[in-house]
Specification:
about 230 residues; alpha+beta; globular; five-stranded mixed sheet; Aminopeptidase; seven-stranded mixed sheet; GNAT family N-acetyltransferase; 2 domains
Amino acid sequence: MVGAYIAVYSERDVDGEPRRFCNLAAFCVLEEFRGHSLRLMRAILAQQGFEFTDFSPSGNVVALNQRLGFAVLDTATRLTPNLPRLPRRGLTISDDPTVVAGVLSGRDARVHAEHRDATAARHIVAIREGEYGYLVVRKDRRKRLPLFASPLYVGGSQDLLRAAWPQISSHLLLRHAALATLAERRVLGFSPTLGFDLAAPRAKMLRSKNVRAEAVDYLYSELTLLEW
């Protein structure tokens, strides 16, 4: 073997329609055979009936993907500090698996069940007065420091997540040792007040004629399955 393209396959409901996804997760070809890289990419993209995503393209892969029909997603990101906050009366923030599983319903319950054992996925709920907000995050490295939380999926009440963000970010700091959150607005649904916008957030890409960019999250991908 001189090269491989690792992919993660899933079937998901998007805007009421079942869609099959092929997430391009890892691409590696021995240097002396890299002239054949494009053939490998064209072969995987020749699969019929799939929407294709690439959430961790590196180096010149971004430009190559664009030549092959991928579009760059809006990854506008605010780096926001996670500061310690006092608990708020009537608000529960928990990552206890029993609490999380007990409060989720519908699509969110399925997401949790299918990602419960995903190595990189961390599940957090905010609960208040019978409603919940659900957040799936991963720990990310910047400058080799594993000190950042990155939201991958949001479920339940987005308004509750926004209102509870000070306590959620405190939870990320105290329970997950995340000093800051890489808050991608398209995924999180809002930008926390504190922090600053990144000048060059990392690219994530989609190749599809059927799926809106706004409907894309980062589940069922290397971002949930692998820590690095």
